[in-house]
Design brief:
The structure holds 2 protein chains of 2 kinds.
Chain A (H helix, E strand, L loop, with lengths): L1 H34 L6 H18 L4 H24 L7 H23 L14 E3 L2 E3 L1 H23 L1 H11 L1 H6 L4 H26 L6 H16 L4 H17 L11 H13 L9
Antiparallel strand pairs in A: 1-2
Helix pairs in contact in A: 1-5, 1-8, 1-9, 1-10, 2-3, 2-4, 2-8, 2-9, 3-8, 5-6, 5-8, 6-8, 9-10, 9-11
Chain B lengths: L1 H26 L7 H18 L4 H23 L4 H21 L1 H4 L17 H28 L1 H11 L1 H6 L4 H27 L9 H14 L4 H23 L6 H22 L17 H7 L1
Helix pairs in contact in B: 1-6, 1-9, 1-10, 1-11, 2-3, 2-4, 2-9, 3-9, 6-7, 7-9, 10-11, 10-12, 11-12
The chains are: A mainly alpha, B mainly alpha.
Chain lengths: 288, 307
Amino acid sequence: MELVTEIAQLVVNGLMSGAILAVPAIAFTLIFAVLQITNFSVAAHIAVGAYAAYVTNSVFGLPIILAILVAFVVSGLIGVVADHLALKPLRSYSALTVAIASMALNLVLENILRFCFSNNVQGLSVPVYRDWIFGSIHVAPQNVYNFIIAVIAMAALFALLAFTPVGKAMRAVADNSKLADIKGINPEQIARLAIFIGMGLAGVGGVLIALDAAIEPTIGFRVILSVFAAAVLGGLGNIPGAVLGALIVGVGEELSLLALPVAYRSAIGFAVIIVALLFFPRGVLGKR
Amino acid sequence: MTYVVTVLTFGGIYALLALGLNLMWGMTGLVNLGILGYYAIGGYTSAILTAYLHLPVLVGMLAGIAMGALLGAATCVGLVKLRDDYLAIATLGFAEVMGLIAQNEIWLTNGTDGIGQIPRLFGNLRGESFNLVYLCLCLAVVAAVFAAMMVLRRSPFGRVLRAIRDDAMVAATAGKYVFGFQMKALAIGGGIMGLAGAVYAHFIGFISPEIFQPQLLIYTFLALILGGRGNNIGAVAGAFLVVIIVEGTRFMVEFVPSLSAVQVGAIRQLIIGVGFLVVLQNWPRGLFPEAVPKYAPPAKHSAAKKI
């Protein structure tokens, strides 16, 4: 019985941390879907979002909801500008060259943050609540709020993709960019929009992570393996897949605590990547 | 003087890493972002054998090479069939796990405290003269590996690797066992990187999980891209250029007053990252591009005559 409640508790925790992971995982997979590029600088944009929220919330004392919006816009804009300067000129080379360049871009952005904010650990100012207790399962209200914010962000993206002309155009480019071009969709514009939304979401993910942990320049780098694992498990470019992948990674990381020391938690991401690639090379939601 | 010698020794270590990466990525086309894993296992193996078990340094170094090669072959089994972008992500994860092991298996690696007092190769030499002798050894090792790679590149084996890089399907159709060649390339490359790690460990005399710093991965890729991917001369030249750039930034930031140590470090990383992008945008094939052998197609009329 003890074990059952422990597992239930871990699953609940995992679903909540998985929902947070899902936000940057969607960002990574959306950019891949539209541009066919694995953009490693998602890690730095997570950190950009976290710091944008820090400045809004802790320095100017504005509410968290506003900080999240600021983080979305700031990291989205920085994403577009950085892509324009650093990666766009390379797009005629192989996708891999761009991927490697995105690692250098990541280094640049991370060090701009380090220059401005130093390595000191910062935090958002959020009230501390007492845990809610359901039966024998403890839930931190902050985690529930984060979960809700993550769900809202994802729902907004799904609504955009499903119901707006822009979203339709984006799906068309992701599906077949040449055909979309023939049909009069400007792939360049759509790419820019995908990067804005993607990196903006990465920034929102950064705020959600920061609400739960300390802010430092490597905040994104610390979670990036789990983010990649979620996207790979869902199938790169598959947005609902990334959400499902993130939930699985989140729960997997928590359940690993039953068998492994905490320190190896982040190794689960790697294990998930390997299992996914061996057994679901097109993602859990992919067609065989 | 000591400073120059130390910098050049690091240049040699980077050159070894770049030569190993050139074999994996430049020649065979396998993007490996896990190179620090081989570097670390080489360094740790040699450190553990010599500092804990008191084996001779040469034995430690050879074991470091062997472990790097084994790890390279092991990577091949799980990962090599993956598409480029998946391979990049998976190997990055692999290095991450290696870093976790180095941090947490304290019985083996002494955790974040690291292993100190690693015996040096020329134990009786002190200070300056040790550094000089070690630099010569390091450069000799680089020269030997470089020569071996030049031979390998021209050999039938090297030609198959490049064929696999350009089109694995064609190589397979020509009856080449692609997987076997890729495994050998990763094993040899891993061995070279293991050697680089061992050379590092016995130079510094200390090894800790700090060697998994992401900058080193960037430096190695920068060295190879700057020098010219696929070209061994480019790999070595690129490595020494990178060391000069990395050290040069140290002097550049000295002219900017009133910066904290963290800010100075950040600016140096920033310059290197920007430099990487500038090089890639302007000289995508590097300063010493790989010489692609020209294939002269048979003249048209001779083909026509046969019909």
